[in-house]
Amino acid sequence: MRQSQLLSPTLRQAPADAEAASHQLLMRAGYIRPLAAGVYSYLPMGWKVLRHIERIVREEMDRAGAQELHLPAMLPAELWKESGRYDVYGPELIRLHDRHGREFALGPTHEEAVTALIRDEVKSYKRVPLTVYQIQTKYRDERRPRFGLLRCREFVMKDAYSFDIDAAGLDASYRSMFEAYHRIMQRLGLCYRAVEADAGAMGGEGATHEFTALADVGEDTVVTCTECGYAANLERAEAGRGASTASDAVGNGVDGDAQAARVETDENLAEDQTSKLADAQAYKLASAIAQAERFLTPDMKTIKDLVAGLKLDETAFIKTLIYIADGETVAVLVRGDHEVNEIKVKNALGADVIELADEETVVQVTGAPTGFAGPIGLKQKVKLLVDYAVAALSEGIAGANEEDYHVKHVVPGRDFAIDAAGDYRNVMEGESCPYCGGGRLQFHRGIEVGHVFKLGTKYSAALGATVLDPNGREHPLLMGCYGIGVSRLMAAIVEQHHDERGLIWPQAIAPFQVHVIPVAVKDEKQMQAAEQLYAELQRAGVSVLLDDRDERVGVKLADADLFGIPLRIVCGKSVADGMVEWKERASSEVKLVAIGECLEKVRQWEQLSLCSPVW
Amino acid sequence: MRQSQLLSPTLRQAPADAEAASHQLLMRAGYIRPLAAGVYSYLPMGWKVLRHIERIVREEMDRAGAQELHLPAMLPAELWKESGRYDVYGPELIRLHDRHGREFALGPTHEEAVTALIRDEVKSYKRVPLTVYQIQTKYRDERRPRFGLLRCREFVMKDAYSFDIDAAGLDASYRSMFEAYHRIMQRLGLCYRAVEADAGAMGGEGATHEFTALADVGEDTVVTCTECGYAANLERAEAGRGASTASDAVGNGVDGDAQAARVETDENLAEDQTSKLADAQAYKLASAIAQAERFLTPDMKTIKDLVAGLKLDETAFIKTLIYIADGETVAVLVRGDHEVNEIKVKNALGADVIELADEETVVQVTGAPTGFAGPIGLKQKVKLLVDYAVAALSEGIAGANEEDYHVKHVVPGRDFAIDAAGDYRNVMEGESCPYCGGGRLQFHRGIEVGHVFKLGTKYSAALGATVLDPNGREHPLLMGCYGIGVSRLMAAIVEQHHDERGLIWPQAIAPFQVHVIPVAVKDEKQMQAAEQLYAELQRAGVSVLLDDRDERVGVKLADADLFGIPLRIVCGKSVADGMVEWKERASSEVKLVAIGECLEKVRQWEQLSLCSPVW
Known about the structure:
2 copies of one chain form a homodimer.
Chain A: H1 21-28, E1 32-36, E2 39-42, H2 44-63, E3 67-68, E4 74-76, H3 77-83, H4 85-88, E5 94-97, E6 103-106, H5 111-121, E7 130-139, E8 154-164, H6 167-187, E9 192-196, E10 208-214, E11 220-225, E12 231-233, H7 243-251, H8 256-263, H9 273-287, E13 293-296, H10 303-310, E14 318-325, E15 328-335, H11 342-349, E16 354-356, H12 359-366, E17 383-387, H13 388-391, E18 396-399, E19 405-410, E20 420-422, E21 441-456, H14 458-463, E22 466-468, E23 474-476, E24 478-485, H15 486-496, E25 498-499, E26 502-503, E27 514-518, H16 524-539, E28 544-546, H17 553-563, E29 567-571, E30 579-584, E31 590-594, H18 598-610
Parallel strand pairs in A: 3-7, 15-17, 17-20, 27-28, 27-29
Antiparallel strand pairs in A: 1-2, 4-6, 5-6, 7-8, 8-24, 9-10, 10-21, 11-12, 11-21, 13-19, 14-15, 14-16, 18-19, 21-24, 22-23, 25-26, 29-30, 30-31
Helix pairs in contact in A: 1-15, 2-6, 2-15, 7-8
């Protein structure tokens, strides 16, 4: 392609609202343009890259035995009502009416549509295992679309769905997709981790993994261990019940032994013979602590206020948060330095929706404004979800359910009943690894680019998708779903492959492989060499962009850096000596290469990259 | 691919609502399934065919120098308000609101979006000519979706847009697309015609062509000449003013000379010296006709009623239809045997929207209920659009603008003023060709599968898309738009390529090239031969489907006929003699071929089809 004809409008400045590097550079290089918030046009080079990513995803899906199909984006609301998601999905689901007033949703995902299809078309165990996929434009009305292609309202996704008759089949289908995802990420040259993720109501070991590309701009937090291979996202990462809280407590100067003793009262040991002994010890310890006592804490509504006002560490406090889970009001207690993990709470309750209670509810339940809730003396009886770290406290300071008052010497189990002790908090960086125990947890920012998930019978049961086994017995299909954010991947790759001058495309997805640049198009020799190379490479099937524009060399080289085509061949003064300049975008080295050897060298270079270690 | 694993659910019966052969067969063969009216899922084989069509379209677009990009489907309403189409488009445009209440439309076409993009990104004559295209899912809320993929609400379209600085450039861009469309249709093996179509306000010779696939189920009427190459759609086909009306008149027993004389009063001759003479002659003739006279016609509201009641030919009557064009009421007069061509009326008035007046307006304008309108004695002064064939009548019978009354001896020009004589009617089969005069017009049913259109400055002017010429002067861009119904093409191809047993895919777009069928999978020799062929063909890069199902041979062959894979190789009893049966789907001939020669013969067969005369 000749650059003079290519629609590739560059910008000197990134738009003011572009925070992420990928957003800035894809805009500046003329790969994308916004049409509305979170709604983008792909210009020719952007679309080429996207199609290359699609191709790699498609190849690996096909290789894994998945069959490509294509479901509509206009989905009848009835389908979503059958699964129960129509009301639950909220404003992210784009809804519309047709001319007859019938309700539709624009597909944000296709579990319902694919389950209904398979329900109607697949009746026998002979037709499974079956995995189908599609690469399609999806719609989610994000509350805050941002970061360019990272969080869009209209975006390209690959979604796959597997159908099996039993758990072993689902395991195999899941593993096959899991491996295909690894191959895809590796072929795309991504630095990524497959991390354990929250499986919601499914639960179970290895029921879901996110594929997360490491990137500072990422909105996800990945937790890894410094010693073992443990990797989970923050929503999922398990808080170690013993070591970590104990060590935190030690760090905070509280009696370690007492702490350790209480820790043994946790669920896992409850049935154990030792638990009664532990309880007795704990009781003795608790009875040594002074009675709970109300005291004045004017204007101290937050942990920060209390820490400042009382000159105590955050760990001395018990935070009580009032939530509404599927309509039921509950209280969640975490230590002052911890954050509630709403996903964990939601899962523990088996709830669909959870949200912080509004002020009115807080006043109703506690009798006080927000900031003074506590487990003792609540006006309404609500379930208390007590985080392990709170259950492990010998004593703490909690809200008094009265404005400007807190209570000290609060002993969990003595002063309030622990309805459900559990892991309800986010882990903290530096904690002990819950798996190996020896390592410490590290946090990383990442972009979720893929997600594999065992759905089980959630949708097949709701929509009645069953098959008959060889004995004529009906079985609900076990499903898995597997998503890849194709357009998001494009941005994630840029986040990892760029410098201050522009994009640096991995060869596998570059819009062109070679950028041929004559320094001065009016110099006959240079232009002739460039045209010759251009023709030669094209004949050889190499995708090549020729910068035939009559522009200053500075402009041309700056645009080339911005575009990020992996190999640049500059035809400048050395053409007089039969040489051209060879520069790979990812390197700063410039070599002189004889014009006659260029094609052969390009072929070698292509081979080299095709055999890159990641693949 | 092994058929036992392929999601390809066949149906014995087509659904009751499937009228078109393509709809029936694509459903029966398991290529598509409906999710809602006019909203389809593509199953694996259907999607393969669609992607093959896409590939051919893409290759020819690229070859023509068009650049692929991708615009959003979610289009801000503001854009459509800028072009003025938001209000005009009507209920076919699917509208929605985002979570912030902002209005969007789901793109039925992308003139606005692409014009806005080019307006913002292309400023100089150096960047044109430029043609961009996309292959995308489009949305139109059809009043009556039907015929499966032929008229959908969600469908796949290729739309291209060209931008030029002058008319010569637009001509060249248009020609380039016109030729690419011919190549596409030929590669798809379609029987089609490029027909002149209505250019709306653009007008002009060759400003728009439709590519119409001949098919009985088609909703378009193509008019061709028995002698010359003239081809136009019915909306566009010009009514010959002289010969055809005259000959019709002769056929109806009216004085041919008188008729011919009046014909000469038409617009083209108005400035001519001869016209005064003709007028004088016409006057003389008219004055010989009796005075116009009201007479009772009880319950004769339609031409059919009048023909039956008065025992006269349809040609003896003048039909008067009341229309509302952009808010203005007009009357259109056509001969009793003719139909109003609303597109012609709309174009003549330069109107955006035209519709038949409601009963209330008819009563207001005529003083009578529908069925008795006429040009004499209207209650309101409205513009009279008089078709040439009416203007050419020596006399006729028209409505009296009074219930149950008509007027006879009505002489156009004598009894009512001809505000605008013109071509306002559909041509009729058998009329003389307006171009060569010698041939007769023939009607054919067809499916519009492509449309090329010179838009001129319609959108660039509305959205302010201009470029600077070398002298720094601003020019609005001249645009062309070029659409292909990709999913509709799939159905159109089936309409032309099927028999009573199933689909017959042209090789270029078949889901698989070869269908290998072992007659009895439990026969070791047959199965071994089939497996060997399957492996060998796959290694050679031939796409092949192996029917490894343990089914009766009758079921397998019936499914094979239904699927329509172009080449079938059956491994039956003759395998014992080292032979297999070779049968092309499009032929009834069965040959025996040595197993060892199969691969070579398949290669030859592939080459043969690649060099087919249509390409």
